[in-house]
Structure formats: C-alpha cells, structure tokens
Specification:
This is THAP-type domain-containing protein. Helices cover about 15% and strands about 10% of the residues.
C-alpha cells in the first residue's frame, strides 16, 4: 500500500479513504523547502518516506517525459 498523505485533513490512502498517487519529498534543498512551506503543519520535518498525494498539486506542476526505460534490459526508448 502506498504511503498516506501528510497534508493536514487529507485522508488519501488511509483505510476507507480514496486512493491517490503519492510523491516523496524532493531531495533538492530548495524544492524541499518549498514543499514544506506548502504543507501547513507546525514544526513539520518530513522523513525519508513522507509523501504528499496528487490532490495537492496542479496539473501544471508535473513534467511529462516521453522516455521509457525497460527494467529488464535497462534500455531507454
């Protein structure tokens, strides 16, 4: 089961709650700071597996790539 969203009041991926894609916090310091600022939680310090669900992003926040990597062969197309 994917992790549960860390946003206050969000019940995505909890038992009985709606299912949603989740994203780990970025490792880049500037991006991580921006994500933390967007989550209204006092003294919030995300851990390695802390996630935010897709409901808290705009479609324009995502970058779509057209490459595919075959996990068996390692080739990219």
């Amino acid at each position: 089961m994917p992790g549960c969203c860390c946003a206050p009041g969000c019940n995505s991926n909890y038992a009985g709650g709606p299912k949603a894609r989740v994203y780990r916090f970025p490792t880049d310091a500037d991006q991580r700071r921006a994500w933390k600022k967007a989550i209204p939680r006092k003294d919030f310090s995300p851990k390695k597996y802390t996630v935010v669900c897709e409901k808290h992003f705009l479609p324009s926040d995502f970058a779509t790539t057209s490459t595919y990597r075959d996990e068996k062969t390692g080739t990219t197309t």
